Amino acid sequence: MAPKQRKPTPGSSSASGSSPAKAIPHIDPNSSFTPESFEKELKSLAQKAQSETTLHYLTEQSIIYLKSAALLSLIALYSTVSQLNLSPTYGSIPSSKWHSKLIMAGCFAGWSTNLTLNRVLPFKPEKLLPLLAVYVPVVQFFLGKVSSTLTAQWGPLITEGLTLLPLVTISAACVATYLEGADLPGFLPSWIRDALPGLGGYGFYKLSEKILGGLAEEHIGQSVLNTRVGMELALAGSYAALAPSKLLVFALPALLHTALLNTHLPTGNALAKLNKGLESVGYVVLDRKESLTGYVSVVDSPKEGYRVMRCDHSLLGGEWVKFLNQGQFKGNQVAEPIYGVFAMLEAVRLVKTTEKIKDHEAKALVIGLGIGTTPAALVAHGIDTTVVEIDPVVHEFALEYFQLPKNHTAVIEDAVTYTSRLAADEKGQRFDYIVHDVFTGGAEPIPLFTLEFLQNLNALLKPNGVIAINYAGDFALPPPRIVTNTIRSVFPACRAFREHPRDMEDFTKNQRDFTNMVMFCTKDPSGEVKFRHPNNRDLLNSPSRQAFLYPQHEVKEEDFVKAEGEAEGVLRANDTERLVKWHESSAMGHWGIMRTVLPDAVWEEW
C-alpha cells in the first residue's frame, strides 16, 4: 500500500523538489512583540541616544569653562600674592609700577601664541604651570638679595618679568586653547563670537583678582598658608592638582630650598636662619608677622642700642633701648625716641588756647599708632588717650616690644570709618587734642588727608582744642602744598614746621627734599598759633624732647614747589588721583632713604 500523502507545512520543501514557499512569520496575538511595540522601542532608543549626546555636549562645554575659570582664578590670586611678596623689598608703590603692564603683556602674548606653544612643546602647556609656580619663591629670594643693585625702579619689573609674566603667558595660552572648543550661541554676530572669549576671560580675571585678592589681603597672616610664601606654595600645589605630570619631579629642588633655606618662610627655623645671617651686620629680628598693612617686624640693633618697628619697606618708629633704666633715665615714664618728629608731635600740648586745657581733664585722640611714642607721652601727662590703629599686629608689637602703656583706649579699626561714625553722633565723644600721624608704604594714605576726613576731625575737636597733623613727603613735589591747602581750608589757624632744615646740597643734586612736616591748627578764626615754652614736666626727663619738642624749623611759603595747575585747590575724596600720580616719585625717594637708615641685608632678608 502506498503511504498516505502528508500536507506540506509552511516552510518545508515539496516532495517533488519544487521551490520552497515564502516563509510567513507567525505572530502570536498574545505576544508583546507587536509592530506598535517595536516602533515604540525604536523611538525610546533614539531619545536615549539624543539624551546621551546632549549630556556629553553639556559635560564637554562645562569642562571647558571650568578649566578656564580655574586657571584664570589661580593667576588672578597670584597677581595679588606676587605684589605682596615684593612689598617688603621694594614697598607697595614701586612694586605696582610695572605690574598691570606686565599682566596685559602676558595676556596678549599667551592669547596670540597659544597655537605655536601647542605645536612646539612636546607636552601640553599647562604641564609647565606647576613648575613655574613652585620656582617663583626661589627666584624672588635670590633676586631680593641684589635689590640694592636692581633698585626700586627696575627690581620689581625684573622680578615679576621672571616669575609672574611666564605664569600669566602660559595661563592665557591654555585658556585660549580651551575656549576654542567653546560653542557660543549661533545668533551672535561673528565679530562678537570672535571677541567674546578674550574679553570674557579678561573680565572674569579682573573680577577674580578683586575678590580673591581682597580675601588674601584681608586674611593674610592668620595661618602659615595665609602668609606670602605659604600662599605661593598653596598655589603651586593647586597648579599641580590641575595639571599633574611626570615633570613634577623637577619641582623637588625648589621645594627643598623653600622649606630649608628660604628665610621668608614664617617658621621658627627660618627666623633663626635669618638672624644667623644678620649677625654680620649687627641686627636681630625679635618678632615678625604678616598683617593688614604689610610685613611687620621688630628689629633690634644690639650694637647701637636701639629698636625699630618695620612695616614693609618703611619704619613706623624706634626708640633707644640701651637707655632704659640706666643712669638719668632710670624711672622714666617714657622711652627715648630715635626720631625727633615724634617728640615734636607732643607740642600739641604747648599751643596756647583761649582757655587752658588741664591734662587730667583732657581727652586726646591719636590716629596712627606706630610704636606708641606720642600716646605714651600723652598718657604720661595724665591725658585720657584713645588710639585708632587699623593693624592689630602693630598694636600688639607696640605693647610687647616698646614702651606703650596699657592704660589707653585702643580702637582697632579703619580711621575713616571710625571718625565718620563718631562725627555723625552729635552726643559722641569730643577731644581736646587730636594727633594725626599716619604713614606707610613710602607715601601718605591719601584718604586720611582728604577734605572730607579732615572735616570729620574738625567735628571731633572741641572748640578750644588743638590738632597736630604729621605729613611725610617730598617737598620737591606738589603734594605737600596740596595737603597744606586742604588742612588750611578746614582749620582757620595753622602753622607748619619741618623736622629738619632743607638739605640744599641734596636738593640741588637730586631734586629731593623728603621730610616730616607737622601742622599745628586750632578752630579759632581770629587766633594765631603760639606756643608756650616747655617746662621740666613737659620734657619728661628726655634729651630727645629737650632737643625737638619745641617746634623750630617753620615752613615758609617759598618751601613749597609751585606747579601750574597742580598745587591749587584742595584734595577731595573723589579727586585723589591728584596725589596718586606723585606717589611713585615720592616712594622711590623714600626707598633710597630707607636703604641708608638700615643695612641692605635687613631689608632684603626680611
Task: Give a structural overview.
The chain has 606 residues and is an alpha/beta fold. The chain has two domains: 51-266; 318-574, Rossmann fold, CATH 3.40.50.150. It is 49% helix and 14% strand. It has 22 helices and 13 strands. It has helices at 35-90, 92-96, 99-112, 114-120, 129-144, 147-162, 164-179, 190-218, 228-242, 252-260, 268-278, 340-345, 373-380, 392-401, 415-424, 451-460, 479-490, 504-510, 536-539, 543-548, 577-597, 600-605, and strands spanning 284-291, 294-301, 306-311, 314-320, 336-337, 363-367, 384-388, 409-411, 431-437, 461-474, 493-498, 514-522, 553-554. Helix 5 packs antiparallel against helix 7, helix 5 packs antiparallel against helix 9 (228-242) and helix 5 (129-144) runs parallel beside helix 10. The longest helix is centred in the first third of the chain and has 56 residues, at 35-90. Pfam families: Spermine_synth. InterPro entries: SAM-dependent_MTases_sf.
Number of domains: 2
Low-confidence stretches: 1-22
Shape: elongated
Strand proportion: 5-15%
| CATH topology assignment of the largest domain | Rossmann fold
CATH class of the largest domain: Alpha Beta
**Estimated radius of gyration:** 36 Å
Question: Helix- and strand-based class?
Answer: alpha/beta
Helix count from the secondary structure assignment: 22
Organism: Podospora pseudocomata
Keywords: Polyamine biosynthesis
Protein name: Spermine/spermidine synthase
Region (Disordered): 1-35
